[in-house]
DNA sequence: TATTGTTATACTCTATAACTATA
DNA sequence: TATAGTTATAGAGTATAACAATA
């Protein structure tokens, strides 16, 4: 039985994806790459990367959370979380407040400058989301989200 | 109406994902990160990264293809494709053959050493694929693949 | 002993700009 | 002029190991 000829992508101009065509993991990465590229195009300040926006959004939704919990939620190493928090703190958008109950850790909080960025980032990521969903019906988008959450949970 | 409390991830320990929970793009990235981590764990030689394995697999399936077509199919920049081909060529797994019809470009081919890696990589990526699909029914995996191809195409 | 966070280090990935060679 | 590929450069992301401070 012949492999179904799969033009995953017009840009591929008929390249055969071999065993990669059968790998959901590979397709996830390609879809994510496409979305990250769109998001980067939509973001005026190129230092505001997807990961850094995610960090800011997570602190916004969870004021006082710690770097460890941040790194676990985004599946980053602790050093990566340190650097991301450093980035926002240096720009006056995030604060580390000492936790009197556990002086090893910090509570993370947004400054007013950081809070002001949240709705902007929500809007930018909504735009990239629209170009993603444009290729799906509403029902398909709902189903895709459900399946992704099932994988991640 | 309150946002549905979404524990995307146990590791998040109840962190609220804020607007990220509504972004398929974010969920795609998280799912891909999980899969890439699993793939890296399953790969004995840590220099054999996901991207490099993809490059080898694509040349295996398309002997004689060029670096430009490779970069388009994997959505890499041309310099990134150059570096990936350099990597495999330095290790004796890939050859650049001059194309007599267009001496600007090379035809890419695997050496016997490169060919020997293809089934190994197919097996490694199949293992990571199994842990991904473990969380889905067969019908869900089929549907997820269909939706991802729709996004990528 | 274990945990939180930082620093040092190294490697991967990625892109843009400028370049050479060829078409 | 346009295309294929390379080099130079820089920045982003990532991880491990070793460390300090605290629990």
UniProtKB/TrEMBL annotation, chains A, B:
Q: Does the keyword Repeat apply?
A: no
Which species does this protein come from?
Aurantiacibacter arachoides
Q: What does the record give under GO molecular function?
A: DNA binding; DNA-binding transcription factor activity
Q: Which Pfam families match?
A: MarR_2
Q: Which UniProt keywords apply?
A: DNA-binding, Transcription, Transcription regulation
HTH marR-type domain location is 1-153
Extract the InterPro entries matched here. HTH_MarR-typ, WH-like_DNA-bd_sf, WH_DNA-bd_sf
Q: What is this protein called?
A: MarR family transcriptional regulator
The keyword Cell inner membrane is annotated on this UniProt entry: no
